Amino acid sequence: KPNQPDENYNNYHKRKYSYKPNIISKSEHYPEMNKIWVSDITYIRVRKEHYYLTVIIDLFSRKVIGHKLAKTLEASELINLMKKTYGIRNKPKTLIFHSDQGQQYTSKSFKRLLKENEITQSFSKKGCPYDNSVAESFFASLKKEEIYRHIYNSFEEVEKAIDEYNVFFNTQRPHASLKYNTPEEYENMSK
After folding, report:
1. Angle of CA points 80, 84, 88, to nearest 5°
2. Which is it for the CA torsion 183, 184, 187, 188, positive or negative?
3. Which end of the chain has fewer beta carbons closer than 10 Å to its terminal beta carbon, N or C?
4. Are 167 and 87 in contact (CB under 8 A)?
5. How far apart are CA 56 and CA 174, in angstroms?
6. How far apart are the C-alpha atoms of 91 and 113, rounded to whole Å?
């Protein structure tokens, strides 16, 4: 039949858009630090510019353990952030890294970095932000409590504000899910 794609096209399409596993459970409780990290990217508008904020959060404590504001969505920004965060957290073993299926997370260079460090990659289902609700919740808090309350004139101003908010979020802002401890307090209790 002339209107049907040929078999090679179908096979290529299936391989290219194959199912990517979501291996974290739906549970909101995770028993150990440095076992499951989640990551996401949001954009922040400053005047007529769009900047991109990437965060890495430890699901155990909901602590923002890495963040980077960038002017582009290049995979190299994520790779550099991941290398830095992985080193700061003492290169944990048996780590699962969970994100959406954005091109930065599915890039060959990022997947290679995870594989070289024996980090298991997990993905949210397409169009299902609830799979990454902890990161989405952080972005909502950041925007409501900081970004939407101020006018920034430059990249540097918004970058400084985000740095300061992350310190506040990790060390002063209690979370109901952490029995009203801050992420920092919750991690310190588990050591």
Report:
1. 170
2. negative
3. N
4. no
5. 19
6. 13
Handedness of CA 80, 86, 88, 91 (dihedral sign): negative
User: Contact, 110 vs 56, CB < 8 A?
Assistant: no
Distance CA 125, CA 164 (A): 32
Over the stretch 42-77, which tens digit does the pLDDT of each residue have?
999 998 899 999 999 999 999 999 999 999 999 999
Reduce the DSSP state of residue 50 to 3 states and report it.
strand
Q: The pTM is what?
A: 0.86
Closest by Cα among 32, 117, 41 to 83: 117
Tell me the H-state helices in the chain.
7-16, 75-88, 103-106, 108-116, 133-145, 155-171, 183-190
Give CA–CA dist 185/180, Å, rounded: 10
- Reduced to 3 states, what is the DSSP secondary structure of residue 6? coil
User: How far, in whole angstroms, is CA 14 from its chain's centroid?
Assistant: 26
Q: Which region, left, alpha or beta, applies to residue 62 given φ > 0 means left and ψ of -120 to 50 means alpha?
A: left
